[in-house]
Request: fold
Amino acid sequence: MRAKIKNKQEVAKGTLLVEFLLLEPVSYQAGQSFRLTLLNPPYRDEAGSSRFFSIANLPQKDLVTTVTRIRESAFKRSLWELPLRSDVEVGSIGGDFLLPEKGAKPLVFIAGGIGITPFLSMLRYLEQQNFPYPVSLFYSNPDRQSAAFREDLPGLARKSRNFRAVMTMTRDPDWPGEKGRLDAKFLQKYLDRPAEALYYLAGPPGFVNDIYGALVSLGVRALNIKTEEFSGY
Reply:
């Protein structure tokens, strides 16, 4: 369907939030993704003018928002430079990176860098529902400058006893919080019974694979781990 670029905002170093106004009403769920096609990109290369992106906003009928790293690819440079109101194509909204229908287990979200994107949508939805079950977010970045929405998460945690956010900056010596790499030892420090939770992992493939292995080593069954990889973002 046709859509227009409604707003663009740099939300961290090299990280762009983009809102797309949909010209037809749609229905989707928190955690899903969409295919974006640039109709008149100023730059082109062999990779083409379409990409898949996770949705960052609370589900709405006429809007999808995403957050992406700005790279040197023709697609990303075009997205950066296209003016507001530019026509684009939004399609293939869907995916199974979804919240459970029932909150039988505590949820643990683990995000690396731009992998925070689908969790923003989920957290906004859960906030609207008053966090009906326990949710923990572990969010890893190299430093504060690259950590999108890091200032929003503590405030969200203060609103509900059922949500906590643990952020770690692996290459930021002046960061007052956690600085360690997310691994089995790190997670054990915060999770009393890791095998009893349902896990959602999102980030670069190497990050997701490492966390997956850490969880398995802690006794988490594969059926309790959902993954979303961000290749070439």
The chain has two domains: 2-94, 107-229.
